[in-house]
Design goal:
Elements (H helix, E strand, L loop, with lengths): L1 H28 L23 H24 L4 H5 L8 H24 L4 H18 L1 H4 L17
Helix pairs in contact: 1-2, 1-5, 2-4, 4-5
Length: 161
């Protein structure tokens, strides 16, 4: 069960990363939205963007490239001081924490997107619901326990035994 939870965790992040890179890449290549089935620029009239270039770049890197890097880090477990510095869960490996960050980044992305386009489509619903298994699998003890940092006990020098 432990390996299944960890693999599912990585698969969920990988799927998000790959689909966001495809969607974001298509928006970067074609900021008019034509490459993605002719997204009309009119849906951006309530947003600060004249076209899909900036949203495409954000989508590509934040929800595409970053989750794939996190998957690699979950497998290889490199120590990266800067990433560790931004880790809010100091008892956990930084990449596990970042997988939680990515789920919340996806929620924020979908909320901002639906605010700007003033509507909800099937894709927004899919990815909003997608965050539920992402968070559940991340928080399962079988996944979480695999990324708890090993601690070494440092005796208190003031404690006389």
């Amino acid at each position: 069960m432990k390996e299944t939870a960890q693999k599912t965790h990585r698969v969920l992040l990988s799927f998000l990363g790959l689909t966001a890179m495809i969607g974001g890449g298509a928006l970067i290549i074609s900021p008019s939205g034509k490459l993605l089935g002719g997204l009309p620029l009119s849906i951006l009239e309530n947003s600060p963007f004249p076209d899909f270039l900036i949203p495409g770049i954000i989508l590509f890197f934040v929800l595409g490239f970053l989750p794939l890097l996190i998957v690699m880090a979950l497998v290889k477990r490199p120590f990266i001081p800067f990433a560790e510095h931004l880790n809010l869960f100091k008892d956990m490996y930084w990449a596990w924490t970042y997988s939680i960050y990515i789920a919340f980044a996806l929620i924020i992305w979908i909320q901002v997107e639906t605010y700007f386009i003033q509507g909800v489509g099937w894709l927004q619903m899919f990815y909003m619901l997608y965050t539920i298994p992402m968070l559940i699998v991340s928080l399962l003890p079988q996944t979480r326990n695999n990324y708890v940092k090993p601690f070494t006990f440092q005796p208190n020098k003031n404690n006389k035994q």
